[in-house]
Amino acid sequence: MDQGRVLEAFRLEAGELSRAVAGLSESEWDRPTRCEPWSVRELLGHVRVVIAWLPQMLGGLAPDKAEVSAAQYYRPDDRFSPQTNAARIGLAQNHAAEHANGAALAADFAATWRQVDQMCQDEPEDRVVRTRHGDAMLLSEFLLTRVVEVAVHGLDLADALGREPWLTPEAGVAVLELLLGPEQLDAAGELGWDGPTFLRKVTGRATLDATETAQVGRLGIRWITLG
């Protein structure tokens, strides 16, 4: 997926998330989410943290070539270890606690994703970055993983708030192409799921019943595990 298309998906999905959390009450910010032990405010803090890696990455020395794709980024190594998960949880909680209220956190999130969007617009299509895990990736491939974060956790936040999902078509297609591969999108359409349902199913947020499991097997669909 080319960088312009991925960046558009990121921009649209982050914008919808910003609008969704604008004006939440403090009690809504404190609601629990399925991503335990995070509350709504802590989960948004996590999304902000993982987007905020980009300015530092863009300011660093670019690797000579990309070695890891967006799908390979999710390989089950130390990045999903108990120690790394504990650090990930703590970073989100600490970031959320730095803000006086939810409105300040929402404003910080909006400023962060807009800064990232602007910085990425100035980068060439072949820009390579190094992630905090040491992966050398095309910027477009790493941006795709950020679309995953915003889109999938957007579903988590919508469910926690009792809202209809705000998943944008652009982000939905981008994430499905990553999870399934472009060649499987037509087969996936035979399942008859809308975008939010598909993302919940393929990320384990909703279970497959026996009929669905059989249909997925018949279609030959394989998807990556997100940890």
Automatic annotation (TrEMBL):
One of its GO terms (molecular function) is metal ion binding. This is Mycothiol-dependent maleylpyruvate isomerase metal-binding domain-containing protein. Signal peptide: none annotated. It comes from Streptomyces regalis. Residues 10-158 form the Mycothiol-dependent maleylpyruvate isomerase metal-binding domain. Transmembrane segments: none annotated. It comes from the Bacteria.
